Amino acid sequence: MEASKLEVEESQVRVPAGALMLEGNLSLPEAARGVVLFAHGSGSSRFSPRNGHVARMLNEARLATLLIDLLTPAEEAVDMHTAHLRFDIGLLAERLVSAIDWLRQHPPTRELRIGCFGASTGAAAALVAAANRPQAVGAVVSRGGRPDLAGPALPRVQAPTLLIVGGRDFEVIELNKAALEHLRCEKRIVIIPGATHLFEEPGTLDEVASLAREWFEQS
What we know:
Elements: E1 8-17, E2 20-29, E3 34-39, H1 49-60, E4 63-68, H2 73-82, H3 89-105, E5 114-119, H4 121-132, E6 137-143, E7 161-166, H5 170-182, E8 187-192, H6 204-218
Parallel strand pairs: 3-4, 3-5, 5-6, 6-7, 7-8
Antiparallel strand pairs: 1-2, 2-4
Helix pairs in contact: 1-6, 3-4
């Protein structure tokens, strides 16, 4: 007999960040056990198919997800040509902190433990945000991330941190290993054999989602 499908309430939300409003997609499974905030990376948005795939697998494990655009449409248009805002870790982290604070006040999520899932430069922003909100963020997962860009924030991170890197993403492996040395929290690095930077190879993104789910559930 086929198990009944888990109900997931999906809604578009607007998160205040200073004078700006950031657009987000909140997915809330019934009896959610936590919420994961996604920090997108270089040139990506809340519509990232890879992060969307991971988010759906987390929803199936009763983890709510918030996929949010850390840049406004006007900023994204500029960044498409200059690519400088996606590397402004301070700006991205500041907006993630605003999203964390919003999740702690939003009635459906305020009682849920918060995790952060960062990809590419978004991983650095997630780590800086976790360092700045140590009582709020319970775990961090990085997918093909640049945690090295979190710089002096790394030793201040208290949340258990999992770094996931593709086995064929050679330069990023070394950058992650270097960042791992500076983390003082519970930490682990997992290298997925055969995977490149975007985890486009069959099965590799499912492995990322499985690792992330387990990390968020245990932390």
